Amino acid sequence: MRNFTAILYKEEDMYVAECPEVGTISQGKTIEEAIDNLKEATELYIDEFPVKEEKKTLLTTFEVAVSAKA
User: Fold this and answer.
1) pLDDT score, position 70
2) Structure pTM?
3) Phi, psi of 58, rounded to the nearest 5 degrees
4) All residues at 6 or more sequence positions from 54 whose CB lies less than 8 Å from its CB, including other chains
5) Widest CA span of the chain, in angstroms?
6) 66 within 8 A of 60, measured Cβ to Cβ
């Protein structure tokens, strides 16, 4: 078993889930469905393209100044 990262965001009426370690992306109507679909997509990807080394993903946030133009 290996742990992977799931990054989620909402796009219209669907949740999109991405795995940055391998580049897989999936979606679902709920967060749980998006993650389940991402797990399946990632397992299928790894079956075809085995991951040779474990990459540690660093996750952080940053601020950007946004000017309000009216």
Assistant:
1) 66
2) 0.81
3) -100, 130
4) 2
5) 52
6) no
Q: Which domains does the chain have, with CATH numbers?
A: 1-70 (3.30.160.250)
Check if the beta carbon of residue 44 is closer than 8 Å to that of residue 53: no
Query: How many contiguous H segments (helices) and E segments (strands) does the chain have?
Result: 1, 3
* Tokens (6 digits) for 48: 């075809």
Let me know: does 27 contact 19? Beta carbons within 8 Å: no
Mean pLDDT split into 10-residue runs, the chain, 70 residues: 92 96 96 98 95 80 86
Q: Would you state the pLDDT for residue 68?
A: 79
Q: Which two tokens stand for residue 17?
A: 């889930």
